[in-house]
């Protein structure tokens, strides 16, 4: 009975999450049909989807696995670059749907591979040290991609870490990645419906993982690694499983993001972007997938809504960030807030409150 | 000879990193939090020196003292308003708040002083005590800024070590660092101790800012951000929480960065620095001089 | 409690969506201009204001360039409106933080506002993304300072007011070779910046074709630019007698100071990004003595257009305009020339206006603060005489 009830509860909660995503899609479609959708909002739809996927995937590492990662943008970057290379080279040669599919598969796979490469040695560290190493990984990816020149001509693929001329290409060659200028002339491949489908896919995979046997193992590692090991849980395996899954979806989000714009530069995927995603996760609630979805969407739209404040926009954003953190996380404020809620409830209903059972 | 000049450039940069890293490591060691706003406190301190020394022609030492006072007040105020309410909250919440604070300081600086870069006057340029040293018939020059930064770094490190190991306030800091709850039970005023830590860290930031901008004279609201992160990496490199570690990590980071610029690639120097960091952490997970902490069940 | 919060968040989201959806037109205040003053329909022709949009970084690390452009455009719009006696242009400027995603958002916000012509964006990377979108919308785009060649290559509706990067690199190399300014060339450039690496690539090819040798090609990135001493030392050790600096003035000032510290005195040669170095607060301009720069604009030029611009800019903003502001100022006047030609008016659709402007720009000749007799080719590149200045006694003097 207990198990059944438990299962129902999580299923119900997941259904609500899916409902929110589909509801969001329907509302946008409705607004669009009524002609009430502004360019400003419609331009943000794909980035919103990308950030939602990023937030969900990072929440798997931070919330469920309990390890702090400051290099999520690095996985996004390798995914975006590999996926975009596939998309631009195949464009016009294969049907668009196939090109897109391949771009996402390759982007996700490459990011997953990097997740594995980084994960194997790094997951031995923990806490703040893991955070630093992931930050370092993100910075390495940014710097290497920024100095990367890649092109092809009739003689094959050319590559350099110095400058475009060092590639030694023939005159007929095509430059794919041009250092700091990045990839240009990308044909737009991402659409809102594609974004929503990917969000739902991410939710299906990650929610299933969390609620599976593997997910419970991962959570047990978070709660007490030594205890988990003592009951025979393979720590490395489950840590890697969570870390790689997280990286794969970051890569997919990267592809979705980059195919929405006509140019792609490595600079975008810097430490600030990693932090931004982390902010989504923390504000949405660590370990709370639905919270991540909502926080990512809201915080992407928020700075745009503050545009009329001009130069004060980022100032307000910073203040809001600090205040929200204090309001939602400070034990004293939380206790005060609870007291307030109790007081109001006590005033309006005399029923005794059921005690919350952990 | 060329190698020596690159090495000196590296030590010069490294000593600045070390100075910033000392502040980072103090705060991390005692308050157990990553104060990402540290780099921006440095930036504010630099602006104070810029206006006091550059615009009003105040004595350089007085300007730095003034900047230390301003930064100390700022640091303690930030701790009181933004970090203290979150003392018992998950460490991630404090991290995000620190990042928010970093954005806030940058934005405030931009609104107050515009984003136009200012060329920072060297605080030791016309000093009668410190002169650039010229070696090997002028083939090798060590700038006065480098000499002062290294001296300042060593002096501050020694003072900090003395303070922490030989004064009662320092012992209180160690106790808070070791076990906050137990320290409180033993009658240590935890809040006051952490405030004191922030005061010292921020005062160091003011000195670091003045010397950073004297050596690398371009001052913008974003000036503190990247050196801040690099110095943080330096602190981890040397073993975060360890004061000699911060010094060693800072110098090594500066040297590695400049030698890889000189001999490998100027574009990839940052990638190399971070790669070395990862390798070091994999071999010595607590940094070069960090203490190993055994996890008890 | 959690439920309560998530419910609150969800409802906030719905509200925000509704808010976004309803701000379709005109609720954005134009940035600090008084251009919304009532239009006096005195002329017989249409006096519907033309809505000019600008995009550039007004916050973040590149803010000084974006703000210069914003002020230049704003000044020109105010001057034109005042002189015409009615509102010719309405102007709104949006921040892009030097980021492609934010630039797209800014562009969409301006579209909601009703923008008809885009004067932006300021920096190359955001420009590339925005240019792709303007092609889809067939919106006329005239960028004051985004000089990457890929920007104009995006479509035939994109025009530049500044020289393209390769053009600057080639002209600089030719000038150095013809005037025998140096034999061993050192270069220090920003490899993380599209502008700087674009100039460097073209410069390298041209200077080698001229038979000069690049003995040191050093770069830095936006992350490690605080310390540029090793790059300077490498040029010094390689014996470079001319150092080419295709970078912005902030970093250039650091290089000049670092070179001075080690007693290295080659000829320094910069491009248009160098303009502004003399007005950095606190910078010892004696270090810039002998610095040469290829730049279309000089605030000390004696022609009437420039002097009028510099005087009113200084009166309005209390600082000397840099090349960014001058290019931006010229952008507005170039559009105004088309208004005076009678080829565009505020009643036209975005696409009609784009076609009219394209036809005008490829045929007209424009005189502005950044050069007389400027013309545009069909691909959107500007052609104007390059000028080389040398810093003498803290001021620009025309180089021989």
Quick one: overall form of chain C? globular
Mean pLDDT of chain C: 84
The rounded distance between the terminal residues' Cα atoms of chain A is: 18 Å
Structural class of chain A: mainly alpha
How many helical elements of chain A? 13
* Radius of gyration of chain C from CA coordinates: 22 Å
Biggest contact: A-C, 57 and 63 residues
Q: For this structure, what is the CATH class of the largest domain in chain C?
A: Alpha Beta
Low-confidence stretches of chain A: 352-358
Q: CATH superfamily of the largest domain in chain C, please? A: Response regulator
Number of domains of chain A: 2
Describe the structure in brief.
Chain A is mainly α and 358 residues long. Chain A is 70% helix and 5% strand.
How would you characterize the overall build of this protein?
- The complex is a heterotrimer of chains A (358), B (297) and C (400).
- Chain A is mainly alpha-helical and 358 residues long.
- Chain A has helices at residues 2-34, 39-64, 72-90, 96-122, 127-146, 192-210, 213-223, 225-230, 235-258, 271-284, 289-305, 313-329, 331-348; strands spanning 149-153, 156-160, 174-178, 183-184, 263-264.
- In chain A, strand 1 and strand 2 form a beta hairpin.
- Chain A is globular and about 80 Å long.
- Chain B has a two-stranded antiparallel sheet with strand order 1-4.
- In chain B, a hairpin with a 4-residue loop joins strand 2 and strand 3 (140-142).
- In chain B, helix 1 (2-31) runs antiparallel to helix 10 (243-263) and helix 2 (38-55) crosses helix 9.
- The mean pLDDT of chain B is 88.
- Helices cover 44% and strands 18% of the residues of chain C.
- Chain C is an alpha/beta fold.
- Chain C has 2 domains: 45-162 and 305-383, 3-Layer(aba) Sandwich (Rossmann fold), CATH 3.40.50.2300; 166-295, Rossmann fold (3-Layer(aba) Sandwich).
- The A-B interface holds A 62, 68, 121-122, 124-125, 128-129, 131-133, 135-137, 139-140, 143-144, 146-147, 161-162, 226-227, 271, 275, 278-279, 282-283, 286, 311-312, 314-315, 317-319, 321-322, 325-326, 328-333 and B 34, 82, 85-86, 88-90, 92-93, 95-97, 99-101, 103-104, 107-108, 110-111, 229, 232-233, 236, 240, 265, 267-268, 270-271, 274-275, 277-278, 281-282, 285-286, 295, 297.
